[in-house]
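[worker-b] picked up task from shared queue
[worker-b] task type: protein-ligand structure
[worker-b] ligand name resolved to magnesium ion; SMILES cross-checked against name lookup, match
[worker-b] sequence length check passed
[worker-b] input payload:
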Amino acid sequence: MSPPGAPSPHLPEPRPGAPDPPPDPAVRGRAAGAGPREAASWSARRTLATNLRGIVGRAYPRVRGSLREKSWVFFEIALPFLSTCAFVLVYRALEAPEAYVGFAVLGGAMTAFWLNVLWAMGAQLYWDRGEGNLEIYFTAPISLMSILVGMAVGGLYLSGTRALVIVAVGSILFGVQYAIDQWLLLGAVFLLTLVALYGLGMLMASLFLFWGREAWHLANLFQEPVYFLGGLYAPVKVLGPLAGLAIGLLPLAVGLDAIRQLTFSQVTGIGVLPPAAEAAILVAMCAVFLVLARFALAYFERKARAEGRLMARWQ
Amino acid sequence: MPSAPSGPAIEARALRRVYKAKPSPVVALDGVDLEVPAGELFGLLGPNGAGKTTLIKILTTLLLPTAGTARVAGFDVVTETVRIRRIMNMVAGGEQSGYGILTVREQLWMFSQFYGLGTREGWRRTDELLDLVGLGEQRLQRVSSLSTGQRQKLNVARSLVNDPWILFLDEPTLGLDVGAARDIRGHFRSWREAVPGRTALLTTHYMAEADELCDRVAIVDRGRILALGTPSELKRRVQEESLFRIALDQLPGGPATLVGLPGVRSAALGAAGAGAAAPDGVTVSLVLADDGALAAVIAALTAAGARIRGLAKSEPTLEDVFVELVGRGLDEADEAPPPAEEG
Amino acid sequence: MTARVVDRHGHRPGMPGEHAPPAHRITASWRSLTTGARLGWAIESNWADPFLFAVYSVARPVGAALILVAIVWIVSGGARPDYLAFLVVGSACWTFVGGGMSGFVWAVLDDRERYRMLKYIVVSAARFLPFLLGRASAQLLAAAAGFLVTLLVGVVFLGVRIDVGRVDWPLFGASMALGLGAVVALGLAVAGLCLTIRREAWNYPEAIAGGLYLLSGTIFPLDVLPAAIRPLALVLPTTWWLEGVRRALLGVPTPGVLGSIPDAGVLLALCATTAVLTLGSWAVFRVFERIARERGLIDQTTGS
Ligand SMILES: Nc1ncnc2c1ncn2[C@@H]1O[C@H](COP(=O)(O)OP(=O)(O)OP(=O)(O)O)[C@@H](O)[C@H]1O
Ligand SMILES: [Mg+2]
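[worker-b] inference finished, payload out:
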């Protein structure tokens, strides 16, 4: 093919004469100094800082992404608001006491967080694996939990807006009357509910990875049935003996029950337990879910590395 | 200047990896011993399914070995994962990963955060790296709109974001055009040369790439290392004689004229391709005991009245080594019987 | 594969934009539909055994019905059996809306982002629309299971009275057929929309179903809706579909606005609104498909 003496066609370029690309700017400063072994030993502070940055880094694309495609305002806020209204109208059709309308509005707002936990955390790692991002997460020097928290924080922006809009617009539209005596406890309960919810989300994230495609169906399964058991639209007390179970297992059920009691203190006899007791349950849930999530993720990582299969993209 | 680490940058001892698979387990690595000193750019060549990616996955802490040990910068890949992750990074070719909705700049910045760079430092480094890999103009474009080559450049930029000491490159130029592949090789070369002690492990199916970039090369097949050495050592191994190709306007008396000369092992009319430059002439392929025998050949040709139009020494290529060791060319390797699926 | 599709005259009947004789287009469409259906079933049934599949298919609709039952209970203590029946039929039917639309959306999103096959399907000889319809059929069938089980739960556990002998079957059949047509049309429109937006669109069908849930009077009589948006309810085929099915199964019209309209009127309204919706959805799908091709989004992968 080539004339004698010509460079072999396999060699795409002349070797010595090629102009070198500009030197790597990274050389400045950071790399110089110690060798790789020193570079690999980080202080606890640096490790922590890196994990915090990882959270921000992971949250950022979520927020940017949703700002970029405006259709979510319609699909994630306006339409879900309408389905909350549907439940309010059922109460109206039944000529229920006005406080019940407020119950439905609060429940509708809380669905935003639950959906976020299910889909944006639970199912997210599974998605990420499909897209080849999971491997890259694994090779980064931060905990998978930081990545998950980042997802949660990024998602909170969306679901928080949604919840806020539902509560604000719903309350004005339907004239909901709140009576709040214990602001501090209310705030604490709300925060605890979120932490417990997202702890559960982390746990689910690792479980969903194992279940693969089934995870999608599981997440689906955890919608209406959980709304029912969590007492999102009708206070959980109506479930009778089931209520105890719901309160013991679902952060959504405990949290919402306490929040309802604290925001409608004029209505009595709606709660399963007094709010303070429910707050204590939430504290326990936070601890249990976070610890379990930590173990589950560590177990998943070990298992994934051992089998080489869990990281595979299609399954 | 940084002190080069004392031990090898990458070290594998009797490394073995068996995948559970149906119908029978696959032995992807079958006792690999490897030592890559700090500062070296080391190449892994081997047919599809040889176990290259498996080795890289083990070294990048993504996969556990079934038996044996491996260390990166002296850290054990099984137990000291976090330390390894802080100082290494990897690039895999043919990947389409990325968050399509983000801009190039945002995606890279996100990764800078995973490695703990400060917010501003992250942006600064992001821009630097994008300029470095030549994506400066695309920085505000969405990742989903990048071409394959641009995506791979972004991938390269990502791999440099933590200023790694050790890079693992699994077919980093897969599917790229000549120019883009050359750019990417250039980045890795200058990255390594900028700081002594930076180390890279590369797998590739492009022999010329390995020849050009790598200080040493190992040829693997079926999970074993078949040969290991510098490219020229390996080449010498397959061929100790000198090979020349001479283009002539004519050769009165045929190649037999040359065979009797001292130091000439064989002479033959060249392959069709070799004659392409001289459609009306002839090409002779010569195998000489050593280069010194050439003088006598030229004298004999001139005496016979042949005019020399061209003369080239043909070097054996890594591909020759590969074919000799693996027993089949790279193209044939593609059609090799299973197990050869991409993992 | 390709060889089979090329006919005697060397035409590839399914090629987009090609003017093939109608008979060929029908066979090509049919083949695309069945191929899509087979693929849809293979994917849907691949992940779990049939028992689990059944559990998943019915848990949601039954859960949704139970929420409403809980509401009725907490307010009236079980004193409104008529309303309970109204709710059960409404939420049973609603299974089709969410499931049907999700089927379409997942056909687009899964094939595009997960399997990355959408582009190959679009460029293949398959006809895209029938393929999507086939691909979504698995979910529609799962929805049918949810529909039946929800009704069953209503009859067995909640005391809803559906007398099989007195059901108006012609009315039921006609309402169901037209109503499902409307659901499929909606699915197509949403699938078209999904061609142009990012992966997070997976939950759009739910959101849209949620909005329609309110507007179609699925769980309350239309009179409860503010008067200003009531006309909106009357142009939705879903409103008429639900009314038709309710009348057929329960034997009584919903009291209020719809109550005075004869059965024939309900069917006529359902027919007309479904026809308009189908035409509109088809146009929407085409428009978005065009946009997707114009912007090169057919093979995009997104995520955040
Ligand atoms: N997750 C897995 N499960 C089962 N077998 C696997 C898995 N991953 C890889 N293998 C098998 O292990 C062997 C080595 O695969 P590997 O990916 O390491 O090869 P490779 O050298 O990178 O090949 P290529 O050049 O094609 O990239 C192959 O036979 C492959 O089929
Ligand atoms: Mg490989």
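[worker-b] attaching auto-annotations
[worker-b] The CA atoms of residues 5 and 38 of chain B lie 7 Å apart.
[worker-b] releasing lock
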